[in-house]
Amino acid sequence: MLRGLFCRSLSNRTVIAAMIVCSAIVAATAASAATLTLSWMDNAAGTAMFKVERKTGTTGTYTLIGTTGTGIETYADSTVSVGTTYCYRVKASNAFGDSGYSNEACGSVAATFDVTIAKAGTGSGTVVSAPAGINCGSDCVGSYVPSGTVTLTATPVGGSFFSGWSGGGCAGTGPCVMAGNAKVTVTATFSLDNNGQVVPGALTLALTGQIRDRVGMSNGAGAPDGFLDGTFLVTLGGTSARTVTRLELQRTGGGVWDTVGSSSAWILGVATSLDGSLLNTSSDSVNFTLAPGGSAVLFASDTGGGLFASGSAFTLTATFSDGSTASASTTVFP
Q1: H/E segment holding residue 271
Q2: pLDDT value at residue 201
Q3: Which residues contact residue 50 at a Cβ distance below 8 angstroms, ignoring those fewer than 6 apart?
Q4: Cα–Cα distance between 236 and 69 in angstroms, integer?
Q5: In whole angstroms, what is the distance from residue 229 CA to residue 127 CA?
Q6: 150 closest CA partner among 100, 186, 124
Q7: From CA 213, how far away is CA 302, in angstroms rounded?
Q8: Distance CA 221, CA 17 (A)
Q9: Do 149 and 177 meet the contact criterion of CB atoms below 8 Å apart?
């Protein structure tokens, strides 16, 4: 960003001079494709319009490119090319005539959109970008096509959780989607799961027994099949509600159930209570929200009573609406 100051007095244009004395013009790259935005201070109390002139390079010739409305203090020039320097000046105008010119201010649209990742907090994790360019980790700076969309995703390591973004317009804990044509730094904060706190979005899983028959032995059998299902209770930890869009249950040694009807896995029935309506009987997916501390009941069909024997181990993976996942495990004991 370049800044200059205009402080000129013109004795033969007293009215205009009083209006424009000590006005500043600023030229800066804007966060949009091939646009330079100017701004200045209007000392005319909103009674003057402004004429904007531009030249290409520092040695070109100024030409008029636009006139603002009365009292307007900004002008966006979208007729610019990436990598070319443009210089600007403005003058005020009203019924009494024109003022002298402001200072000159120059700027250019960057040829690349540079993103730098900074990390903060007591925890650890990685940040990756799409398109590729950042894997931080080790490579924490990426250059992208101006105005192109960049998506940043943070993944904590074990024992840590992702606390959120700051900078670059990013916030929250979901993927950060951004676009621009100027350098920007985004901070990813990772925190430790210490002092007994619950990791936001963490799950707990418990087998409550084989006490209901709600689903069958196929990928779309959302009806009883004559065998009691393995019945689980999944509970969400943390302090924020999460929307669940997929659940997959895997048994160590063989057996997979999920909520995607188009997969080859057997159906994993989901309900808000033991006898409540299944959330995935009329569609091939789930989309429901769990409050902090909230639970859902899962039903996984058995085959002859053999899949939920003592010592069987299960892992549940939940996919949330922001694309993140969380897992929980449990083992059947006598």
Answers
A1: strand 266-271
A2: 58
A3: 40, 42, 67, 68, 72, 73, 75, 90, 91, 92, 93
A4: 56
A5: 40
A6: 186
A7: 9
A8: 83
A9: yes
Q: How many domains does the chain have?
A: 3
Q: What is the CATH number of the domain that holds 21?
A: 2.60.40.10
* 201, containing H or E segment: none
Residue pair 316/329 in contact by the 8 Å Cβ criterion: yes
- Residue ending a domain, among 192, 227, 252, is 192
Peptide bond just before 146 cis, omega within 30 deg: no
Least confident interval from 104-113, 162-171, 184-193, 299-308 = 104-113
What's the domain range around 160? 113-192
Q: How far apart are CA 242 and CA 42, in angstroms?
A: 49
Q: pLDDT tens digits for 40-75? A: 887 777 788 999 999 999 889 999 999 999 988 889
For residues 293-309, average pLDDT: 86
36-40, strands of its sheet edge to edge: 2-6, 23-29, 36-40, 74-77
- Quick one: what percent of the chain has pLDDT higher than 90? 25
d(CA 151, CA 247): 25
Q: Would you say the pTM of this structure is higher than 0.85?
A: no
Q: How far is CA 154 from CA 123, 126, 220, 225, in A?
A: 12, 6, 34, 42
What is the predicted pLDDT for the residue at 34?
65
Amino acid residing at 48:
A
Claim to verify: residue 131 and residue 160 sit in the same structural domain: yes
In a domain, 198, yes or no: no
Omega of the bond leading into 137 within 30 degrees of 0 (cis): yes
When the pLDDT of each residue in the chain is averaged and rounded to a whole number, the result is 79
Helix, strand, coil percentages, rounded to 5, for the chain = 5, 50, 50
Residue 147: strand, helix, or coil: coil
pLDDT 10s digits, 162-199: 888 888 888 888 889 887 767 889 999 887 764 444 45
